[in-house]
Write a structure and sequence with these properties.
Number of domains: 1
Order of helices and strands: EEEEEHEEE
Oligomer: single chain
Distance between the termini: 20 Å
Structural class: mainly beta
Number of helices: 1
Shape: elongated
Helix content: 10-25%
Length: 120
């Protein structure tokens, strides 16, 4: 399933092994009811989780789409991001690195996202 950042569908997903994934922390709450106690369980994102996506090579159009969002992120803009696992997260772009190589290509590209939580 394709990765999506703020409505932009990645034409090329990260290379195999080039995606760190999102760590979830199990949470629990005990709630008193009229006749008993109930335990509720759910997953939440670890605070300030950093996710790295890497590509050996990207077309310039995809790199520049990330770059435009990264430049717009000067004010800490949050984007909806889905890594293709059926979940959508609120993320901030904290780093983008890559090197122009030949015409219309970037190599050794790395995109780092800070996960602020689950969207919705």
């Amino acid at each position: 399933m394709a990765h999506v950042l703020d409505g932009y569908v990645y034409p090329l997903d990260p290379r195999p092994g080039g995606f760190t994934g999102v760590r979830l922390a199990p949470r629990r709450a005990d709630v008193a009811t009229f006749g008993d106690n109930v335990s509720l369980y759910w997953d939440a994102v670890w605070p300030d989780t950093l996710v790295r996506e890497e590509w050996t090579q990207l077309e310039a159009a995809q790199y520049l789409a990330f770059h435009a969002k990264w430049l717009a992120n000067g004010g800490g803009t949050l984007y909806d991001w889905s890594p293709g696992d059926g979940q959508t997260y609120r993320v901030e772009i904290v780093a983008l690195d890559g090197r122009a190589h030949k015409a219309e290509t970037y190599v050794n590209v790395s995109l780092v996202l800070k996960v602020h939580g689950v969207a919705g």
